[in-house]
Amino acid sequence: MFKKIRSDRDPRDTVISEIGKEFRPYFDKAGQGLKGAAKRYPKFLFWMMVINISLSAILCFTVFRHKELPGKKTPIRLSAPVANGFDKIIQAGAALRLTIALKKQVDSLTKKKELTSTDSATLLQDLDSLNHIKP
Fold it and tell me: Whole-angstrom Cα distance, residue 94 to residue 134?
């Protein structure tokens, strides 16, 4: 059941090399036929290449040209996105600074054992301010 399979195959042989060996006569015959046709009709082949290049250029600039759609123009933005981005960063920094200050004040008030009426009012105002700050 577990018998080792021995192969006498050359390890340098690959699928591509074997396909090449098998079909080489056909490729050689086709290559010889094309070389013979090129030697017999060189002017014909030259003019066919010129016609193909010309036809390709004509089709490239006429039929296969990408036309712009009339309604698909992108609008021009008037605002400067860099300045707008910096403004948002500055606003976020100011909101963060205010949040940290309010949080420190709330923490200091909650550490007290007893709150006075002014401490309670300050705490409520600070908590309300924290709720109104935009994230």
Answer: 11
Contact between 99 and 133 (Cβ < 8 Å): yes
> Mutual orientation of helices 81-110 and 117-132 as an angle, nearest 10°?
150
What is the C-alpha separation between 37 and 57, in angstroms, rounded? 27
On the 0-12 / 13-18 / 19+ scale of CB atoms within 10 A, 62 is exposed
Mean pLDDT across 66-76: 69
Domain housing 54 = 15-61
Which of 11-25, 27-41, 70-84 has the highest average model confidence (pLDDT)? Answer: 27-41
Residue 47's Cβ-count burial label (10 Å; 0-12, 13-18, 19+) is exposed
Residue 72 placed within a domain? no
Note the residue count of the chain: 135
Rounded CA gap, 93 and 61, in Å?
55
